[in-house]
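Help! Submission page says 'invalid entity' but I think these are all valid:
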Amino acid sequence: LSAAGESEIDPGAVLGHPAERAPDLGPLRLGPGARVRSGSVLYDGSTIGPGLQTGHNVVVREQCAIGADVWIWSNSVVDYGCRIGSGVRIHSNCYVAQYTTIEDGAFLAPGVVTSNDRTMERKELEGPTIRRGARIGCNATILPGVVVGAGALVGAGAVVTRDVPDGAVVYGNPARERRP
Amino acid sequence: LSAAGESEIDPGAVLGHPAERAPDLGPLRLGPGARVRSGSVLYDGSTIGPGLQTGHNVVVREQCAIGADVWIWSNSVVDYGCRIGSGVRIHSNCYVAQYTTIEDGAFLAPGVVTSNDRTMERKELEGPTIRRGARIGCNATILPGVVVGAGALVGAGAVVTRDVPDGAVVYGNPARERRP
Amino acid sequence: LSAAGESEIDPGAVLGHPAERAPDLGPLRLGPGARVRSGSVLYDGSTIGPGLQTGHNVVVREQCAIGADVWIWSNSVVDYGCRIGSGVRIHSNCYVAQYTTIEDGAFLAPGVVTSNDRTMERKELEGPTIRRGARIGCNATILPGVVVGAGALVGAGAVVTRDVPDGAVVYGNPARERRP
């Protein structure tokens, strides 16, 4: 750890779980002031800024670059290779797929899943991009490669199959724009 | 704990995790006969009746009032400030948002998410109410402030955006009443 | 354990959790070469072939028969009485209901939930069947008794209420066939 000073790590949390898939990425680099709660596991090979907060049973895999003051709540998983800005909130029971980009200040409500594999043949993985300040509602699903625009609002339960313009409000399955 | 006698708590479960957000709420008050399985965490500042059963990796936050004989299965989260009656079943991988009310005998199937923040600006939180004996299907999403009536049945995958009358059957996205 | 040789089990994982519901099923039978990560719990009374891989906080209940080279990722639950073939992939945050059958090579994307109780009265449980090589998209929900055909593709966020023919592509809520 680059700086565990001031951090508070619950017993039973794991900092620096081996990244068996990519063992040469180096150690976990975790900024100061982290609060990591029981059952959470942060992998080697990721870089996380100051002020990380996790709930319980959170998993952050390797090869992620995560900014400052990011909160990830209980039972959420951030898979490998994600780029997450500062001030991002990932609520409970979310799954953030490999190669997802989440920009500063975006909010993922509980149960959100991002995906990266349109055919599920596990050949090419392309994560979606959630732009600055976008808000994604509970249990929403974001399809591979989709861009959710800055400040957009995705309704609860939406299945987002196309790009969402900046500031748009979308919902439904498939999600459609409802009002600007 | 007020009464841990007769209870069976797995190694690795945490009874009385500090409620850092609200440290003055007092200890966890857990009734007798609890069965709490590994990885589960019950916070200080909640009151839980006799006969609690949890699966694994369950989180119950502070400021909750939970009745008797409630079961909460693996990887579910009950966030702070919820009121949950007796005989309630919260199945696996559910998320129960802050200030949700769940009355006696209601059933949440796996993957259900309740929500409390329509704009996701985190200003006003208003949880939904699930009335007595209602049954909520797998992966359903219940929007903020919605009332699901007594004995109502919400289909799997439904996104419930409006109040549901007592005894009604609703499903779809958005959920609509289909037969009485 | 029949063969833990060559296996690698993280500290904090539990092999052989008591099956309190069915204590006479015998021990966990886990094939060689398993990799079980922290927080995961495998119950007594299940039989799992060689090469099991789990992420973190995975629960596999009793009375399951699981083939070779199965991967189950973080925060997923396989409930009791399931039959799972070889080479199956169950991704993160999934819930596999009691009495679900998943044939060889099928893939469940993150957040998939299978269900087994149409009325949620907990009288008769009938799990769905996911046939060989079928792929189920993120956050999809599969209703009780439904058969998803071999090689079928279920889109992200789909709610599958009817049988899906072999090789079909379905999506939406309710899921409908879109192209062969």
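Support: the input was valid. A stray whitespace character was the problem, and the output above is from the cleaned input. The first strand of chain C starts at residue 8 and ends at 9.
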